[in-house]
Write a structure and sequence with these properties.
globular, 210 residues, alpha/beta
């Protein structure tokens, strides 16, 4: 019997704006999460996965309050970690020092465990699904994992997760059809956020008027 596969639609969002101690969300972050939940209300989501840290868990809860009985699951692969540490030879010569200094600023144990978690995230969240029905899933996570999964969908070099920044509560959607390459349908989309709530989480020099 021939196996049947269907398309996965993976919705990715970074948590809402966090408090300075990162124990939860600011009022802005809570409003961002609620508005994203409103945007997703009519999407046929089968599950919401979120990282274990409080800022991701609170964002997922506030989104879930706007959904109709969609189960939420905490899982470590949706957490905050460095997915890959590049070697100097992989990097553009003019930016290698900057990129390596950035990555090596994270604790060695975090850099050591990150690649395994990233592989687990790809196995769990990406690719076509078994069965005849398309699947829509949301992952509430952090900046680095979204960059890693977008990079993977585009078959870009492993180091290229660097520089793929995500705003708080912005939305990225990747489509994984059977027998075809994945497609990034849109990335870092903030259409559900009014102007005062956009661009949080972005370095100031990368913000643009929209």
């Amino acid at each position: 019997m021939t196996a049947t596969h269907a398309t996965r639609y993976l919705y990715l969002t970074r948590h809402g704006e966090a408090t300075p101690d990162e124990r939860g969300l600011t009022p802005t972050g809570r409003r961002q999460a609620a508005l994203l939940g409103e945007r997703l209300r009519d999407v046929p989501l089968s599950a919401v996965h979120h990282g274990p840290l409080p800022r991701a868990a609170e964002t997922a809860r506030l989104i879930g309050d706007r959904l109709d009985g969609v189960p939420a699951h905490a899982c470590e692969p949706a957490g905050d970690y460095v997915p890959y540490t590049p070697h100097r030879a992989e990097l553009p010569a003019d930016s290698a020092d900057f990129l390596l200094d950035f990555v090596h600023g994270f604790p060695p144990d975090e850099r050591a465990r990150g690649p395994l978690l990233a592989r687990t995230a790809e196995e769990r969240f990406t690719g076509p699904v078994d069965g005849p029905e398309d699947r829509h899933e949301l992952v509430v996570t952090h900046n680095f994992l979204i960059g890693w999964l977008v990079r993977a969908a585009l078959d870009a070099p492993k180091w290229r997760w660097l520089g793929l920044n995500q705003c708080n509560a912005a939305l990225t959607v990747i489509r994984y059809p059977p027998g075809r390459p994945p497609s990034v349908l849109f990335s870092n989309d903030m259409a559900h956020l009014p102007a005062p709530l956009r661009w949080t989480g972005y370095p100031p020099e990368l913000r643009i008027t929209s």
